[in-house]
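Weekly structure sync, notes
Attendees: PL (lead), two postdocs, one rotation student
Agenda item 3: pending single-chain targets
PL asked that the sequence for the first pending target be pasted directly into the notes so everyone works from the same version. It is reproduced below exactly as submitted, 369 residues in total.
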Amino acid sequence: MNKVKVAMIGVGCISGIYLENITKVFRDIELIGVCDLVRERAESAQEKYNIPKIYETMHDAFDDPEVEIVLNLTRPYEHFEVTKAALLKGKHVYSEKPLGASLEEGQALVKLAEEKGLMLGGAPDTFMGAGIQTARKLIDDGFIGTPVGSAAFMICRGHESWHPDPDFYYQYGGGPMFDMGPYYLTAMINLMGGVESVMSASKKSFDKRLITSQPFAGTPIDVNVNTYIAGTVKYESGAIGTLFTTFDAYYPYQARFEIYGSEGTLFIPDPNTFSGPVKLFRPEEGEVREIPLMFDYAQNSRALGLDDMAVAIRTGRPARADYNQTFHVLDIITGFERSAESGKWIDMSTKYIRKAPMKKARLIGELDQ
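Predicted structure, written out during the meeting:
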């Protein structure tokens, strides 16, 4: 098929893996231009990856008739304005997570995309990788019987000790649930189905943080979001799940993710990765065994969802990482916030429909049509 042309807005920390994969792995998309408020970043990307254009402003990219998809890699609190401006100019948008920083932002973007007849979706696309897809097949094929519950934990002490500019993680649109929750929730709904309602308790453990990473070492951060969040979900299936995320605790591991079934338990890999291990416990075996990965894209394959959207544009099939998914995840995250404030169960305003599982690739970097 003819390649779908993409403009990247934001050339920050996450852009490196996108640049690598768009230019070297995925065959259905072509990066034709980049834009960043710090022009040197755009120039560096252009030189290293042989990108044809640098846009002075994002609006120059949106006005470019060659551009079909805008790849929004800006900071979370900037996602709404960038995506909205691109949609208004008739561009499809694939955004880094989250879709927006509030439910109202998500609602406005979805309404606009529907009015314009445009595709809107985004990260995370890790659920399309070998690990989560293998877990999905095991569940769908009945290896743990009927799923009855899930539990997931993302525990760390925050980003100020390693990230070069960590302040935004503690501002509007930040915090552990907005930052890391999308990986877990996207995997959860792909494996267990949509969420009906949520309950949560949350708090801010520390009012200030101190950056110890360069180049801002010694700079204090005012914390304006909750950083210790315990959430419970009721799936539409009747199963119950928990998701705990925090930037407040020292912990020797990062991810723990389990799905419990009537006939066994499945240990899910870190949903911030594309790989395994996937482990299965069944009582008749009496031990945990690792399951071979049965799908492609076990390496860091960010931009996989972008490539899938490109194929969907050309063929008319649904995109796997569309706004039905990203908006449902945002509904859950903001539902946790509303529940913590009210002390009540919050019903979801969105319905989630699982898309088709991945297919084995004939050629890596070229998706099924």
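Discussion points:
- The first strand starts at residue 4 and ends at 9.
- The chain has a mean pLDDT of 97.
Action: rotation student to compare against the earlier draft before next sync.
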